Amino acid sequence: MSDDLPEEFDLIVIGTGFAESCIAAAASRIGKTVLHIDSNDYYGDVWSSFSLEAFNKLLDQPSCSLRNGSYTWHTPAEEEEEAPSWTRETLLEKSRRFSLDLSPRVAYSAGALVQLLIKSNICRYAEFRALDHVCMLYNNELVSVPCSRSDVFNTKTLTIVEKRLLMKFLTACNDYGEDKCNEDALAYRGRTFLEYLKAQRVTDKIATCVMQAIAMCDASSSFETGMQRTQRFLASLGRYGNTPFLFPMYGCGELPQCFCRLCAVFGGIYCLKRSVDDISWTPDAKELLLSSAGKTLRAKHIVCAPGQLPATLAPHYGPLQPHISRGLFIAASPLGNEELNKGGGGVNLLRLLADDGRREACLIQLSHYSGACPAGLYILHLTTPAFSEDPAADLADFTAQLFETNAPQILYSAYFTIAAPTNLNASAATPVYCTAAPTYELDYDAAIADARHIFSQLYENDEFLPRAPDPEEIVVDGEDPSALNEHSLPEDLRAQLHDLQQAAQQMDIAE
Questions:
Q1: What's the pLDDT band for 135 if we cut at 50, 70, 90?
Q2: Where in the sequence of the chain do the CATH 3.30.519.10 domains occur?
Q3: Distance (Å, rounded) from C-alpha 500 to C-alpha 265?
Q4: DSSP 147
Q5: Three-state SS string across 218-258, please?
Q6: pTM of the predicted protein model
Q7: By the 8 A CB rule, do 277 and 310 touch?
Q8: Location of each CATH 1.10.405.10 domain in the chain
Q9: In which band, very low, low, confident or very high, does the pLDDT at 83 lie, cut at 50, 70 and 90?
Q10: How far is CA 482 from CA 473, 476, 479, 485, in A?
Q11: Within 10 Å of residue 487's Cβ, how many Cβ atoms?
Q12: Phi-psi region of 267 (alpha: psi -120 to 50; beta: other; left: phi over 0)
């Protein structure tokens, strides 16, 4: 570490994953001195995005949190036979045009992530694209789920009677919890959502549509859970596009960097390629000592990602075990028909259920309109909770559903596992706060809740990520304070002379 680095900080954060970056930004925003370090040479940890070549190198050299990596080329080399449209060489030539996510997910338009980005003003650092379709598999055919009222009445997959039944059902779900709530719905409290659905006498196609793509439930989901998830789906409709979901342009790895940028703007210091050798503390735990590269730093608090815990602390949290199984495919053709992929588009979402009905997986299809791959190619992200050390086996039921009857032209496939500690409650035994590994979820709710919880334990009387000012709102000494607009800085921050745009450029976030 640099010799001119301060020796004492209010907070040291180890790892630049999503939750760690949220905490670092929130602490820096309220005026705390923050050092944010990472053993990797890139931002994001297991939430990052990579070029094709960098992704292959990562799978060849797995870390503690990412393991069981493998990849296969399904297209011949140029010299092997008459060259097809895409070869291994042509894909690698466009390596930097790829942005391959380790932990891909979408965001509800009215969900926790979007609300946090708007509230904190971090949204200015991010760019999103609305998903084109939410899909379902019905009779081995991939079809689009009608989301809006116009979709319902324009779709050719439902009969007129089914359209009316679906609209009636969605209206009842939307009214649930209000004074005008249907009394019949209240009678199903404590029962399953599927029981309620069947009582509405909807057709099998509508039941599949609701359970698989709208409520995203299984047969055991409670009535209350189904209603809550359906309402969340409906509440996000029509905000930024035809579907309720958004996807970050250029990949989900952009999001941790957005929070890192805000942290740097308010004085946070960043050091990549810096591992931690040891963390020790005094008996009263009022001060923690962090040793790294022969330098000892003092901190009032330390937050650490599970995969970057020093060897002296790792035993408290138990061994890392398979947590999420991932599959990533590059294809020369999309899933589904032309209607689902008009104009070479096709940023689509599909939830899959295993034959036993107990396991599920999420598929995100990205086209070049997402900024994640070159034109003419598609990225297919497949994710499921892990139950073994073999991610390909964990995903076998789902790849069979996808590729046996809807087979796109696969050029490249990769599998890997994201691991997590077995003892998530070990923080009680140490003064170090350990964040949770990425969980299997569609949105970012669990990750944001984790960051909020840790921040509240650190600074219980402070607001989590209050609104950051725009550059023109900052008062420099000698300027007229009356020039401030309605979003002026609080008094305790007016003395800060940070130029937001200059600081963002100086941070030099890695691509």
A1: very high
A2: 52-97+319-421
A3: 6
A4: -
A5: CCCCEHHHHHHHHHHHHHCCCCCCCCCEEEECCCCCHHHHH
A6: 0.88
A7: yes
A8: 136-244
A9: low
A10: 11, 12, 9, 8
A11: 12
A12: left
How confident is the model at residue 494, as a pLDDT?
Answer: 43
E strand segments, 243-402: 245-248, 269-271, 278-281, 288-292, 295-304, 320-331, 348-353, 360-366, 378-385
**Structure confidence by residue, pLDDT tens digits, 374-420:** 999 999 999 999 999 999 999 999 999 998 766 789 999 999 999 99
**Are 234 and 173 spatial neighbours (Cβ–Cβ below 8 Å)?**
yes
50: enclosing H helix or E strand: strand 49-50
**Residue 78's pLDDT is what?**
56
Which secondary-structure segment (H or E) carries 506? Answer: helix 500-507
- 3-class state of residue 267 by DSSP: coil
Q: Which residues of 198-207 are buried (b: 16+ CB within 10 A; e: fewer)?
A: eebebeebbe
Q: Locate all alpha helices (DSSP H) within 35-148, ordered by sequence.
A: 52-60, 88-93, 112-120
Per-residue pLDDT at 22 exceeds 60: yes
Three-state secondary structure of 442-493: CCCHHHHHHHHHHHHHHCCCCCCCCCCCCHHHCCCCCCCHHHCCCCCCCHHH
Are residues 363 and 167 in contact, defined by beta-carbon separation less than 8 angstroms?
no
- CA distances, 131 to each of 246, 247, 326, 367, 392 (Å): 6, 7, 21, 11, 27
In degrees, to the nearest 5, what angle opens at C-alpha 262 toward C-alphas 261 and 264? Answer: 65
297 strand-pairing partners: 290
Tokens representing 450? 């984790």
Q: What's the CATH number for 1-49+251-318+423-511?
A: 3.50.50.60
Of 461, 450, 499, 432, residue with least CA distance to 30: 461
pLDDT category at 146 given cuts 50, 70, 90 is: confident
**Fold for the domain defined by 136-244:** Guanine Nucleotide Dissociation Inhibitor; domain 1 (1.10.405)
The CATH number of domain 52-97+319-421 is 1.10.10.10: no
User: Which residues make up the CATH 3.50.50.60 domain(s) of the chain?
Assistant: 1-49+251-318+423-511
